[in-house]
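Re: that chain you flagged

S.,

Sorry for the slow reply, it's been a week of failed gels. I finally had a moment to sit down with the sequence you sent. For the record, here it is as I used it:
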Amino acid sequence: MMRIYPRSINVLFLVIISLFISSCHVFRAIRWLEPSLSDANKFAYIPLMPSSKAFHYFNDTSYLSNERKLFFIELLRGTKTNAF
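Prediction finished late last night. Pasting the structure tokens below so you have them in one place:
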């Protein structure tokens, strides 16, 4: 028979309480069980309507100095980042 010490009970109690206080993921897992592709149908939603005016990015980089442009390019190359 396994003996449970008072300190072990305190640690176990602290772990359980911290799981329940930290977020509601435990309750979600119990309520919704296993995830599936039809999960989106379980929740209420509001459809997003497209805007009447399109958004376009501008290509004007005149506000950047050459030093900043070079730093930025080298930063992207150094971290092997294509975009962010």
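What I noticed first: The first helix runs from residue 6 to 22.

Talk soon,
D.
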